[in-house]
Structure prediction request, 431 residues.
Amino acid sequence: MSNRSKGREVFIVDGARTPFIKAAGKPGPFPAADLALGAARPLMLRQPFEAASFDEVILGCVMPGPDEANIARLVALRLGCGKDVPAWTVQRNCASGMQALDCAYSNIATGRSNLVLAGGVESMSHAPVLFSLAMVNWLASWGKAKSVGQKFGALKQLSPAYFKPIIGLIRGLTDPIVGLNMGQTAEILAHRFGISRATMDAYAVDSHLRLAKAMSDGHLKEIEPLYDSRGNVYQSDDGVRADSTVEKLAKLKPVFDRDFGRVTAGNSAQVTDGAAMLILASEEAVKQYQLPVMGRIVDSEWAGLEPSQMGLGPAHAMAPIMSRNHWQISDIDYWEINEAFATQVLACVEAWKDNDYCRNELGLECAIGEIDRDRLNVDGGGVSLGHPVGASGARIVLHLLHVLERTNSKRGIASLCIGGGQGGAMAVERA
Prediction:
């Protein structure tokens, strides 16, 4: 199904993101709203217009905190947009940040808005820890107990088992329809396409080395430093392992299928906190404020597929964009496919090379072809820098535009797989 917007051209004029901070087993230094503001404030400081000039603010977030209901509105008010600028939050699992961009794209293209702040954020380390239903029911009975006898009776019903917490992050990364967590769906793809453990690990190492080189070469100009309340500064993605080797990764045990699995913590995306914010504008707004233009959004697509095969979502979402625009692989200069798992990206590449898959699953006459690894995730991805689920969709679009700029290239496609069996993709061009 196409969610393509028709009408006016839509430009991306600027963007910024925070460093991606790897979760360390406890809540990190920044809740989600602070991360979003950490990206938005320096972005706004270099604009020739005030925050109140936005027509709307749209933010993708999967797990906002208890004090962050409609986190987009919270961020908009704290940013200084004022009470008159509406703000709303979207949630499409791993593609929430891209969904925010797509909503802004649609509203500008159809004339509803001219200037929009959109992006995504996630503080995965702050994911909630919940009581079980049994414990909630016990608390309800305790609250109703008035006399000493009633309270004593309620206490007798309290079981130690009720105190076992429910980890929100684990539940959130599990598909309730098929009963599989995201790592298990990655294992399915590894077996389906014959992707070996060694191949996954080699891809993961390459992701780390690419990110390390991008950092040393100064290619991550979109990052704005963060400062916590104690004066500590966070200037770069801290999940990178420049000394990563296949031999080191081979020592890790499978996580999701301990007996026969191939997916490990080393060849999977890291649990991470971060935010990415972009400014989208119509031609009218670009001229009004004399804004520089990074590029324009050409097309977007959302696709559904079998939930147990969710990692193939990019193959399904990118294919209609290619067909609609009559593009061949050679027409795309660079690709960003979010690295939820090394095997998931590799499976998408394999699917596009396979005649049977393209005919039977994508409805095409033949295979699309092979994406050149030298043009795919050239500066690393989720395996090395992390995947804060609400933010990644916005990050990959922003970074793709930077890649096109520094290589003096024209066109790119960014895409993600989405838990629950979906895929999202967005095509951009330098203006």
User: Anything to note?
Assistant: The two ends are 27 Å apart (CA to CA).
